[in-house]
Automatic annotation (TrEMBL):
Residues 1-18 form the signal peptide. The keyword Signal applies. Pfam families: DUF4440. Residues 27-135 form the DUF4440 domain. InterPro entries: DUF4440, NTF2-like_dom_sf. Gene3D superfamilies: 3.10.450.50. Keywords: Signal. This is Nuclear transport factor 2 family protein. The keyword Transmembrane does not apply. It comes from Pedobacter ginsengiterrae.
């Protein structure tokens, strides 16, 4: 009985809604700020949307990467210069709040570059820390 109650308590937090409608807009604003920074060629400003911590987790085609600096270094290596970065657009499919300070985002990304147009999907886990929404997990394909 105690285990069932504990499990119900823990699961109920996963399906709580945001405290205010401003939370969803704040998350969308983070993503829009990132998109604009990318399109200006400013990877450091793009990375402002991520938690600046060694615990940041980025999962891409090469597997998991831990840490803000390592993630930035990988972006710099894989998307060098304006020709490598191209023009980024997002398509946000859903924003679900798993708790008052945790949100899940599903979206698509598309890069328009001179020689190609790579695209894919991403899932993000946002956490509200000190009043700011930050990406703590990014799985992009």
């Amino acid at each position: 009985m105690k285990i069932k109650l504990i499990l119900l308590f823990l699961l109920s937090g996963f399906f709580a809604q945001a405290q205010t409608p401003k939370d969803k807009q704040a998350i969308l604003d983070v993503l829009e700020t990132q998109r604009k920074a990318w399109n200006k060629g400013d990877l450091v400003a793009f990375m402002d949307g991520y938690l600046k911590s060694d615990s940041l987790l980025f999962v891409g085609k090469s597997g998991p990467t831990y840490g803000w600096q390592k993630t930035l270094d990988n972006y710099k290596k894989n998307y060098s210069g304006s020709s490598g970065m191209g023009f980024l657009t997002f398509g946000i499919k859903k924003v679900d709040f798993l708790g008052k300070d945790v949100a899940f985002v599903l979206g698509s990304w598309h890069l328009k570059r001179e020689k190609d147009e790579p695209q894919g999907y991403f899932t993000l886990l946002f956490k509200k820390l000190k009043g700011e929404w930050k990406v703590v997990v990014d799985h992009s394909s």
